[in-house]
Specification:
Structural class of chain B: mainly alpha
CATH architecture of one domain in chain A: 3-Layer(aba) Sandwich
Keywords (chain B): Membrane, Transmembrane, Transmembrane helix
CATH class of one domain in chain A: Alpha Beta
Oligomer: heterodimer
Shape of chain A: elongated
Number of helices of chain B: 2
Number of helices of chain A: 25
Number of strands of chain B: 0
InterPro entries (chain B): Cyt_oxidase_maturation_cbb3
Low-confidence stretches of chain B: none
Distance between the termini of chain B: 54 Å
Pfam families (chain B): FixS
Shape of chain B: elongated
Helix content of chain B: 55-70%
CATH topology of one domain in chain A: Rossmann fold
Organism (chain B): Actibacterium pelagium
Largest sheet of chain A: 7 strands, mixed
Mean pLDDT of chain A: 80
Mean pLDDT of chain B: 83
Largest interface: A-B, 27 and 24 residues
Helix content of chain A: 40-55%
Radius of gyration of chain B: 18 Å
Number of strands of chain A: 26
Protein name (chain B): Cytochrome oxidase maturation protein, cbb3-type
């Protein structure tokens, strides 16, 4: 929906002059950020760093392999284009990132803060544990009291500092009259510290300082793992957004002025360069070109555009510059109407409760009641407040929610890390669990199962003469068909014929002179050919009969394998496309998909997905276009490729970073095994509680028993989580 | 048991040293690129002299 600098979405975009403008804007900040999706090893790091440092004017270059990014400090005369070219030469794909959008500082700070609290609690826990071991192994009287007092002196400030995140969350929940996981955690930590302090003052035996610290430490570990997973997903999502620069060229007194899209108004005249996207809905008032509507409608054939044609936000201008008059901006634009459809679809989707939330809902009131009952019971039985409180604290500590607080994040971290390595980005934390339930997979065609790039069909059937003339004509154009034609002829070892006076007629094609004869490559009408029903471009040499070059939309790598393995796993596979019936049928037959529908409108797609859902199916929707957005939101879980429009990526739960579709089938398997691990961990935790809680209630739980039981359960669930790899 | 007068402060001090070392690594942003760091030491660059 925006003109953007170096998108992967459209093949013609590289001609856009915007890239340089953006580079210029970035230089003012003194730092250039590049995304390097293909780097993976030590050799890559040194090659990239050495290559970048070799560019005159570059002060420093540092690669971050975890984020697959390079940050470069350079003098003002170094352009981003130049650096990208250098990396291209080295064989590394690089994209510029809008540094302004990557505001990672705040989240980085949160991560460092958590790590700091984790380190402090770890330090305190080890020291207190040392002292506790001496108490357990028989220190008595004054020695025991001294050890307890030292433990208290370490524990109190540590808890006050390290357990703050739990206290804050618990307070927020309580002040809104709700219960969350942090309430029992805070209560357990608080009660353990208070009773231990009381015991210490009375020279008692049972001090739980070590347990309070261990609880804090284990739960902070879980919190940190959770944060890591989210921050990686967030930074990658930010990175995708930073690849698109939301600016348009507004004509003011005939001069194009770069303007943020949000500031455009109805009636503005806007220049859309070849390769750019329509920033608003409008009407063409000047220029001729062709328009690619595939992201909106799924049609693969470009549409001829001239004065008077209505265009919608997000369509891509292919060949000539166009001037449009904005007829609808912001809330009135077709994009916004699509967003409303998405909102309706989303509200219809059942609010999914994650396994952990479900367990927490049972857990929080459960332990409170249990602990309160044991307090009341013991108080009535013994009449001793101290014993009763001690036992209530022991019950709270023993039921420590480590399975929930540590095991679930450990499993999701392991699973998302594994999928991230395969090129999948989990945006939503419950997406994995939902993914595990999928039994029906709905694919979009254009741009999802196919790459969206045309490929010349049956190259052997064309004469070499025709091909080399076509190649000469095409090499001056940025039209996707022309580019693909040049690529194909190059690969078969042809050289372009010597065509003179090359001229591109926007919206029609290219013409020139071959030995004094006029040659034309372009639309059927223009060269006087009969239009074929498939994607094609036509060549006419002199007055000879025109030759049609036919193109097919190439399959995305891994598409056939993905469909096959999904079907082998017993999933129902459906193809829904906005494209014409013959094109959809051909693809469906090729991939062996029995259920397909063509010329589907966005509403049709949503309805189909919702119908399936109401029949009890769990639908995985894979799509990339605006026309898929609402269906993506309505599906049980959704995936969109990184080349998709911003709106589709926002609506999807999972983004496919690479070009290959194959990780999808694997992701379903990983999601299943991750969910299985989470369930197993809950079972382990339940078994452990069934054994340990009665011991605590009858008052046999000493601090030693509590420490052993808690550590054992935490370690068991973490190890079980790690089995995923 | 008089030994404890020395041993407890010593153990606290040593643990504290470890904590300080960790805080130093945290401040030096040593946890921002774990994957890169695990790969970097394999490369032979700057083996003979430190990076300027």
């Amino acid at each position: 929906m925006v003109e953007h600098a170096r998108p992967a979405a459209c093949p013609a975009c590289s001609v856009s002059g915007l890239a340089e403008d953006v580079a210029q804007a970035d230089l003012d900040k003194g730092q250039i950020l590049l995304s390097l999706p293909t780097i993976h090893c030590a050799a890559c790091i040194s090659a990239v760093e050495r290559g970048l440092s070799g560019v005159p004017g570059v002060k420093s270059a540092r690669v971050n392999l975890t984020l697959k990014r390079a940050s470069i400090e350079a003098a003002a005369n170094v352009t981003t284009e130049q650096l990208i070219d250098v990396l291209d030469g080295l064989g590394y794909e690089a994209h510029e990132l809008d540094a302004g959008l990557l505001s990672t500082t705040a989240s980085e700070k949160a991560g460092r803060d958590l790590l700091l609290r984790l380190a402090v609690s770890g330090f305190a826990m080890m020291n207190v544990m040392l002292l506790s071991v001496s108490v357990w192994s028989g220190a008595v009287d004054a020695t025991r009291d001294l050890f307890h007092w030292i433990s208290a002196a370490i524990t109190l400030p540590t808890i006050a500092f390290s357990a703050q995140p739990f206290f804050k969350n618990a307070w927020t929940a309580l002040s809104k009259g709700r219960l969350n996981m942090d309430v029992p955690i805070s209560l357990a930590i608080g009660l353990a510290v208070v009773t231990s302090l009381w015991e210490t003052m009375l020279s008692g035996e049972h001090a739980y300082f070590d347990a309070a610290l261990a609880l804090t430490f284990f739960l902070l570990t879980g919190r940190y793992l959770d944060y890591r997973t989210r921050s990686i997903a967030r930074s990658a999502a930010e990175e995708l957004a930073a690849l698109e620069v939301p600016r348009a060229f507004k004509l003011v007194d005939g001069e194009p002025i770069e303007t943020p899209i949000a500031e455009l108004t109805v009636g503005d005249h806007i220049l859309v360069k070849p390769g750019g996207r329509m920033p608003v809905d409008g009407e063409i008032i000047e220029g001729q070109s062709e328009i690619d509507r595939s992201l909106l409608t799924g049609e693969t054939l470009p549409v001829f555009a001239e004065q008077g044609l209505q265009v919608s936000t997000g369509e891509i201008n292919l060949t000539g510059p166009l001037i449009i008059r904005a007829t609808a901006v912001g809330k009135e634009s077709s994009l916004y109407r699509m967003a409303e459809l998405v909102a309706v679809a989303e509200s219809g989707r059942n609010r999914y409760t994650s396994l952990a939330d479900g367990a927490a809902k049972l857990y929080a009131p459960g332990v409170h009641i249990l602990s309160a009952l044991s307090f009341v019971g013991w108080y009535l039985y013994s009449g001793d407040m101290r014993t009763a409180l001690n036992i209530a604290a022991a019950v709270l500590i023993i039921t420590c929610p480590c399975a929930l607080g540590l095991a679930v994040p450990a499993v999701t971290t392991a699973a998302s890390g594994r999928l991230f390595k395969k090129g999948m980005l989990i945006k939503d934390s419950t997406a994995l669990e939902r993914m595990a339930e999928v039994d029906t997979v709905v694919f979009d065609k254009t741009g999802t199962l196919t790459s969206g790039f045309p490929v010349l069909q049956d190259i052997g059937t064309y004469g070499d003469q025709d091909l080399s003339v076509a190649m000469a004509l095409a090499s001056g154009s940025s039209h996707p068909l022309a580019k693909s034609l040049v690529e194909a002829s190059k690969q078969s070892g042809l050289t372009p014929a010597s065509v003179e006076d090359l001229r591109e007629v926007p919206g029609y094609g290219t013409e020139g002179l071959l030995n004094g004869q006029r040659v034309r490559l372009g639309r059927a009408v223009w060269v006087g050919a009969k239009a074929l029903p498939t994607t094609a471009t036509y060549l006419q040499i002199g007055d000879a009969a025109p030759v049609a070059f036919r193109f097919v939309d190439a399959l995305r790598p891994g598409a056939a394998e993905t469909v096959a393995s999904l079907k082998a796993a017993g999933k129902e596979v459906i193809l829904l496309s906005g494209d014409t019936a013959p094109a959809v049928e051909a693809l469906a037959t090729q991939l062996g998909i029995d259920q397909w529908a063509a010329e589907a409108l966005p509403e049709d797609k949503v309805n189909r997905v919702q119908n399936l859902s109401s029949n009890g199916k769990h639908v995985l929707m894979v799509g990339d276009g605006l026309n898929d957005t609402a269906a993506l939101a309505a599906a049980h879980v959704s995936i969109s490729p990184a080349t998709a429009l911003d709106a589709a990526r926002v609506a999807a739960d999972i983004v496919l970073l690479g070009n290959d579709l194959e990780p999808i089938a694997e992701a379903v398997e990983t999601a299943k095994s991750a969910t299985r691990r989470i369930r197993e961990n809950f079972q382990i935790a339940t078994v452990y509680n069934v054994i340990a809680v009665p011991i605590a209630i009858i008052g046999l739980a000493t601090p030693l028993v509590a420490a052993l039981a808690m550590s054992a359960s935490s370690i068991t669930v973490s190890l079980n989580a790690l089995r995923l790899r | 048991m008089e030994m404890l007068v020395y041993l407890i402060p010593i153990s606290l001090f040593l643990g504290g040293l470890g904590l300080l070392a960790f805080l130093w690594t945290l401040k030096n942003r040593q946890y921002e690129d774990p994957e890169g760091d695990s790969q970097r030491f394999l490369s032979g660059d700057w083996d003979d002299k430190p990076k300027p």
